[in-house]
Amino acid sequence: MVQVLKDDVKNRIFEAALNEFYKKDFKSANLRSIANEADVSVGLIYSYFNNKEDLFDEIVKPAINISFENFNYKNTDPYNVFINFERDMILELLDNHKIFVILADKSSGTKYEEYKEQLVENLTIHISENIDKSHFNNKLESDDVFIHILANTFIEGILEIARHYKGKKWAESMLDLFAEYYYNGFK
Question: Which of 39, 66, 151, 167 sees the fewest Cβ atoms within 10 Å?
């Protein structure tokens, strides 16, 4: 029974911290506000977490290892790669939409403050290694800025779905619609 109570307290702290970091950001979040929402003392938070940064680490843990870092799908149709590999990973991020937004938009002052930029960089590398430049009538030449724009647009699109999240089915529908137009264009 004691362990159940400890788990309940830790879960309340976790949920209150998730809400606080989502409403504000890491720097603006306040342990006193978290304690008030969780209905615990600030001291009790310290019995579970060493500091605000440890609490933040626990909050972002479910999404931190989801990235575009390990793509090895060369010479394949990008939309099929999305459907077969990327879609499930992105839906996992969207299932954790608050955490994803916290990492991308509200992590300044933490070791994750470059999270969004790293996602864009990883996707830029993936796109540049796999893009069929002939679709652009060789207009790309060696201009990597366009590829960066493509990567940034994709990440921002996913983040917009997370920021405006209206449920799992809605997010899945929005992601599929966004991907269809992103990969196939407006025909």
Answer: 167
Print pLDDT tens along the chain (187 aa).
545 458 899 999 999 999 999 999 999 999 999 999 999 999 999 999 999 999 999 999 988 877 665 555 555 667 777 777 788 889 999 999 999 999 999 999 999 999 999 999 988 888 877 776 555 555 555 567 888 998 999 999 999 999 999 999 999 999 999 998 988 875 5
| 81 plus 169 within the same structural domain | yes
Q: 8 lies in which domain range?
A: 2-59
Q: Enter the pTM of the model.
A: 0.86
* Residue reference for tokens 């799908």: 73
Cα separation, 62 vs 7, in Å, equals 18
> DSSP label at 26?
T
Query: Measuring CA to CA, how many Å separate 156 from each of 38, 45, 50, 85, 178?
Result: 32, 34, 33, 19, 11
Q: Are 51 and 83 in contact (CB under 8 A)?
A: no
